[in-house]
Write a structure and sequence with these properties.
Helix content is 28%, strand content 21%. The chain is built from 3 helices and 4 strands.
């Protein structure tokens, strides 16, 4: 189709490095993460090196996963309820992972 974007076969793809943080925000954006599975942990790992965003709370239906992620990445809060992330007073943006 005209204008369609097609990825090359997997073996031909070049490695891609993404930089999440190029601007310098003061204060940093306070982020809530919904989901402490594989994708949530990937995002938390990226946020760990980002001065412009600060993860504040993580949620997961299995609370022990949320707690482990919070402890690993130094988040002050964790919960089993996504609504708590959305309504948390110290959160500016929510990432659904």
């Amino acid at each position: 189709a005209a204008g369609a974007f097609v990825l090359p076969p997997k073996g031909l793809r070049a490695p891609v490095a993404l930089s999440m943080c190029e601007a310098k925000l003061d204060p940093p954006v306070r982020v809530g993460i919904i989901g402490a599975g594989r994708i949530g942990l990937v995002h938390l790992e990226a946020l760990a090196s980002c001065a412009d965003a600060k993860p504040m709370i993580v949620s997961n239906p299995t609370v022990s996963k949320a707690q482990a992620a919070a402890e690993k990445y130094g988040l002050p809060y964790f919960t089993g309820d996504a609504e708590e992330v959305i309504n948390h007073p110290e959160v500016d943006a929510v990432w659904i992972c």
